[in-house]
Amino acid sequence: MARNKFDIDESLDTPFDFSHLKRSLVYVNRYKTRMIFAFLLSILASLVSLCGPQLIKKSIDEAMPNGNMTQLLQLSGLLGGTIIISLLFNAIRGFIMVGVGQDIVYDIRSDLFRHLQELPFTYYDTRPQGKILVRVVQYVNAVSDVLSNGIVNIIIELLNIVFISIFMFKTDARLALIILAGLPVLAIIIFILKPAQRRAWQRVSNKSSNLSAYTCENIEGVEITEIFDRQDENIKIYDQLNNLLNKAWMKAVYISNLISVSVDNISQWVLAIMYMAGIAWFSPSASIGIIIAMGTYASRFWQPITSLANLYNQLITAISYLERIFQTMDEPIEISDAKDAYNLPTISGEVEFKNVSFEYEAGVRVLNDVSFKIKAGQSVALVGPTGAGKSTIVNLISRFYNITEGEVLIDGHSINGVTIKSLRSQMGIMLQDSFIFSGTIEDNIRYGRLDATKDEIITASKRVQADGFISQMEDGYNTQVNERGGRLSQGQKQLISFARTLLSDPRILVLDEATSSIDARTEQLLQMGINELLKGRTSFIVAHRLSTIKSCDIIIFIDGGKIVESGTHDELMALKGRYFELCTTQDE
Amino acid sequence: MVMGLALSIITMSMVVIIPKLSQILIDDVIIGGQKSKLAPILLVMCGVQLLRTVLRYLMVICLENASQFLVMRIRKHIFTTIINQELKFYDRNRTGDIITRVTGDIEYVRHTCSWISYMFSDSISLLIATIVFLTTIHIGLTLIMLAVTPLIAIISYFYIKRIKSIYRQLRERLSNLNTTAQENIAGNRVVKAFTREDYEIDRFDKCSKEYRAANLSASYKWQMFSPIVDLISQSLTVIMVLAGGMFVMNGSLTYGSLAAFSGLTWALANPMKNLGIILNDLQRFFTSADKVIELFYSKPIIADRHDCNDKADRIKGKITFDNVSFKYNKEPVLKNVSFTITPGETIAIMGSTGSGKTTLVNLIARMYDVTEGRILVDDVDVRMWKLSKLRSSIGLATQDVFLFSDTVDGNISYGNPNLSEKDIEKFAKGAAADSFINKMEDGYNTIIGERGVGLSGGQRQRIALARALAVSPPILVLDDTTSAVDMETEQYIQNQLTNLDFECTKIIIAQRISSVKSADRIFVLNNGSIEIGTHETLMRKSGYYREICELQNLPNLPPIPDENSTEEGGAK
Known about the structure:
The complex is a heterodimer of chains A (about 600) and B (about 575).
Chain A: H1 19-29, H2 32-66, H3 69-118, H4 121-125, H5 129-142, H6 144-171, H7 173-180, H8 182-220, H9 222-227, H10 231-281, H11 284-330, E1 351-359, E2 365-374, E3 379-383, H12 390-397, E4 405-410, E5 413-414, H13 420-424, E6 427-430, E7 439-440, H14 441-446, H15 454-463, H16 467-472, E8 480-481, H17 490-503, E9 508-512, H18 520-534, E10 538-542, H19 546-550, E11 554-559, E12 562-567, H20 569-575, H21 578-587
Parallel strand pairs in A: 3-10, 3-11, 6-9, 9-10
Antiparallel strand pairs in A: 1-2, 1-4, 4-5, 7-8, 11-12
Helix pairs in contact in A: 2-3, 2-6, 3-5, 3-6, 3-11, 5-8, 5-11, 6-7, 6-11, 7-10, 8-10, 8-11, 10-11, 15-17, 20-21
Chain B: H1 2-31, H2 38-83, H3 87-92, H4 95-137, H5 139-146, H6 149-186, H7 188-193, H8 197-249, H9 255-297, E1 319-328, E2 331-341, E3 346-351, H10 357-364, E4 372-377, E5 380-381, H11 387-392, E6 394-397, E7 406-407, H12 408-412, H13 421-430, H14 434-439, E8 447-448, H15 457-469, E9 475-479, H16 487-498, E10 505-509, H17 513-516, E11 521-526, E12 529-533, H18 535-539, H19 544-551
Parallel strand pairs in B: 3-10, 3-11, 6-9, 9-10
Antiparallel strand pairs in B: 1-2, 1-4, 4-5, 7-8, 11-12
């Protein structure tokens, strides 16, 4: 899979068309009724406001020449009335459409987030987090208006154009044709500009995504940046990205604004030609009314077109965001339940690898034909040089990746045949990174089992020796920690993460370098605390410390993706092979 | 900016010219039959329109350019500020919130600068041009029509008062949404490991709903306010008819002039209506701007003094702790710690989880300032060193390895971007990373993800070590850097470290006796105080170190001598 970094634009497979828009109509469709209602209100509002000019005309033609004060007052009152009614309709429309816009955005965001939850590790591993984040928040926000008000406005403006065209043709077909002749010219201009405009906005979304990615990364890695005194260099890089975004933006603005320039000029030329033709074709006396009327219609005809041109610009911008959103939604969920997947029943914890091979990237074997069988309740230590495939083995048990060849069986059930949820919920996996969420320490531990009581949380913490430091903190379990876990040391984070794992009461426990940052004494105490707990549960432990490894029932030594030796500590020591070598190094 | 505004005024006055030309066209040519005038008038009309649109285009570009430039500078400044912030700032603020400021808030500032600026200049110049034009026709009617303006001001005032808090809430919720999404993405492994997808969806859904609610309540307030402003601005038409009618009836106004008023009422009403929109957007802008400005002016406490030390020559690597105490908030971490490390010495630090090992090295790099006492590097207080000089002299391989989404060599040369490929390889070899890097698809050009996902823990640690070595620092700090590395590799790394081709003081934090026993001195941290000794002296005493030796089954442990034996190596 292609990997992405902050300054590489993400490529898009789908060519430009309005299909993205069509696809977003699925979301719009759900609110059809409300939109139609809002649309009708708008029409009513414009119909009512059409009465306005009539009333003004009447007051000028009748009331004023006659000095009829009461009629003038009446007419003004009516005029005020029409204004209030049309505003009221418009306001209601506004209320409705605001709701629709927010609902559409909410739906898109929910779907996007849901999909993100199902995407495999590889998706997250291969791109900067900031690029994912901008899609969920910023991009989705950016399309709200176009998908709600934009669509209604487009329909209204199109209707306007149709109505005015009918009026024009009724007045004089030939002059009407001249005015309409501007449209193909505009269409050609838009057609010529479209690819450039679209590329420009795509570039903007790309560049802004790059900038966001770089910003996020710098916020997360700030400690490294400061300690390596890299600020100036990073500011330079940021400046470059910033400049690229600026250039992309300005280019998009240059192109997009050309459209309204064209609309304004075409409308003026068409009007001029219409006047020329009108005066040439008609006798002076007959022409006045028609020509003046056509002049008015012409300007009213081009107004909605100007609005449409603006809406078109918004659409093009929105599409460049929509395509990113949909691209993410189309990202394949590599690891999903098989069609006939069944819930894994409560397991005893027997784990078997049958000729398992695995590659992260095609052609690069990480595991090669690995087979072993662990009885329920046994503890297994995975030992071997860094990068030998230890973490990979434990990741495969929980099906974080799909195996390339072979089979992994738990209690005789192939893990590919059962639902992921039923599989993972019976496993307690403690990863190398002990991620802490912002919130209280208690919340972080409770993440392991959401319905755990405070007592259970404290018991779990005591078992893993975390209670000591937690209760020493100012607010104890209610101490606020943030996602960086700033005030916690790495070892403390691991202890919290350990408590979290234990709380989930797993049948199979996986500890992947889980105690690497915990000092030996605490680890010793911790092990005494959990030994009781581990009875009857299968456990896989990836560790480098001999004290941890020795006490396991089975030790599997892995190198180069293959099992080199396996057996108990004593057996392997007697073998005088790789494991023996390893132990003697540490004992030196 | 100024040019943009000037252009805006010109284009707006041209807006008034075209209807005037139409007027002449209708009166003289169509009604008056002067056909000879037709072509010139039409040409002038088209010419004016072309000029106007071109000028307007230029105006938009000018304003966009100005606002983009402004935002670019703000963005850069904010970025500079945040990456120079001290760690306390980051302990205090959630990542998602900082991201909201740097992305969402700045985006809103941009929007305001570009869009509002030309909307505002358009409205004002149109309003002024119209008022001047109408005043020349009839002062009385103009004044009556303008009388509604204060009404708009009053209503706006009340609206602004109420909308402010709503926008603040909206912003808070956007920040929550960002934080929730950001943590979910960053912690996706934990989420999957605990099958908490549904829980996360619920959590996000809650934020998303709250955000929607805040958006709605802001929009509803707007939907209440804007029709009122519209009503006032459109009431101008009624006033025009009523008051204008009365003026006509008493003969002070001609029909033609009334028609002019009628034709230009929109030019008064629209700017007024726009003023409401502008006011609303400005409020929103202020809530975002507050956050941006706060960042803009936030100065880290840990910063260079004006008289700071910035000697060009290489730091030798002498480190002195003089009665140092450090409290994290109110929790004491170090208590009256004193020691001196001579240049070139290798110091190992051990201690239980949370005993302050990382804090101690962070203090040397002045990531935090001491609460009491002082820390000297080469006999100069760290607070007197130029930060960049001090920090670039310290090579730190952190415990929690953060790698950037960059290539492997980009990550290794992070602290020293000008490093040659050859040197990068050399340092990678020193960190025992060369062999696995070469096995990767694109070798040193392989892009690794943030936090180095896709690499094993030991591999990440070795890249971090190479990164620290690559700056050839006078002070090298390894914060539990080999905890996830297998023992053979660790042995190799230790050998490499003793044969570095640059002089340096080494501080090694570790848990394994095998990693620390060959150090010149070993510091054992316990409850904020420090015990100093060598492997030989410490293992002969009962205490933390001896306990660890026993736990790790060190062979040939000597028996603990009598309690009255002499104390060697160091003091508390």
